[in-house]
Amino acid sequence: MNEETHFQKLIQLPSEDHEAYLAKLNDSDLVARLRDLLSAHLQRESLLWSTANESTSIANTPTDSGTIGPYKLREQIPEASTKSG
């Protein structure tokens, strides 16, 4: 199995199983590269989630001045009822 195949298997595992998977490999250089790849992958994923959540919460929150992002609120629209019939 090559490095890419091991990495794909590794990222599909729950994080608590990563070390057990790596311990089964007999190539210390491969394990070091996979740890580096996994670390970079998890940091990127964490950054994407935190940025997306931050952007969503900031963009959808009205300010005291009555704006959401670049838009100024002219009037409050009542929320629709979810009752049917």
Largest sheet: 2 strands, antiparallel
> How much helical structure, as a percent, in the residues?
55-70%
SS-derived structural category: mainly alpha
Structural Rg: 23 Å
Coarse morphology: elongated
Which series of helices and strands comes N to C?
HHHEE
Distance between the termini: 60 Å
Task: Kindly describe this structure.
By secondary structure, the protein is mainly α. The chain has three helices and two strands, in the order αααββ. It has helices at 3-12, 18-23, 28-59, and strands at residues 67-68, 71-72. It has a two-stranded antiparallel ribbon with strand order 1-2. β1 and β2 form a beta hairpin. α1 packs across α3 (28-59). The chain starts with a helix and ends in a 13-residue tail after the last strand.
